Amino acid sequence: MRRFTLILEYEGTAYHGWQVQPGLPTIQGVLQAALTRIAGAPVQVTGAGRTDAGVHALGQVASVSADLRLDSLTLRKALNASLPRDIVVCHAEEVPTDFDARRSARSKTYRYTLLRRDYPSAWLARHTLFVPSPLDHEAMARAARILVGTHDFSAFRAASCTARTPVRTVLDASWRIAGDLWHFEITANAFLQHMVRIVVGTLLEVGQGRRDPAEVEATLASRDRRRAGKTLPPHGLCLVEVQY
């Protein structure tokens, strides 16, 4: 039995997230089906992160053990020939048998993108949240910096989150402007369910003048989900990179 790691890019619109769900299309399910066809036997895949329905990825990492004779390059080509066009294997590599895409990860980087102009985009509609109202970039940047460090992020987790602990370490949280696109990038050792989407929903309220940047610190300390902003839609979110 050999162990492989895969780096995946996917457009998540058509899928009910990463994790297998009976009767529903998921990234993990489609990938396992493709690998099973290639290996001729059932194959289980572990992902670095369980992206939600509608969330995209540029650098999702998966690990898989399979009895394969293919080299890494041939495996990548075989998978891309078998997978639908909205899921792509960018890289395949044989790794030690103890490598686990989830447990071996040190941190992950997510990006949430706003489209900042007075008219929407047909081209970017599936990958950005359209925000035509004025925003205070500097206030949003100040609020984002408050999140850096080790904190209890209970105020920024979904009610259905099953993580054992709400404590997470955020290594970086910042905004980057590229023309009409405002990218919020956050790197942490791990994330809670809906954490990034709630964080950006809160920062958006700061940018709109509906809350002061200092209130983000008070919200964090409160550990009360009701004190944070709304959960933004999933389509603006992308898993950018997993660090090992």
From N to C, what is the helix and strand string?
Answer: EHEEHEEEHEEEHHE
Structural class of the helices, strands and pairings?
alpha+beta
The residue ranges in which pLDDT falls below 50 over 5 or more consecutive positions are: none
Roughly what percent helix? 10-25%
Q: What about the largest sheet?
A: 10 strands, mixed
Description:
- The chain is α+β, with helices and mostly antiparallel strands and 244 residues long.
- Helix content is 23%, strand content 30%.
- It has helices at residues 27-39, 72-82, 137-146, 195-207, 213-222; strands spanning 2-10, 45-47, 56-66, 87-94, 107-115, 129-130, 149-152, 167-178, 181-188, 237-243.
- Strands 1, 2, 3, 4, 5, 6, 7, 8, 9 and 10 form a ten-stranded mixed sheet that branches.
- Strand 8 and strand 9 form a beta hairpin.
- The radius of gyration is 19 Å and the shape is globular.
Question: Topology of this structure?
Answer:
Blueprint: E1 2-10, H1 27-39, E2 45-47, E3 56-66, H2 72-82, E4 87-94, E5 107-115, E6 129-130, H3 137-146, E7 149-152, E8 167-178, E9 181-188, H4 195-207, H5 213-222, E10 237-243
Parallel strand pairs: 3-10, 5-6
Antiparallel strand pairs: 1-3, 1-4, 2-3, 5-9, 5-10, 7-8, 8-9
Helix pairs in contact: 3-4, 3-5
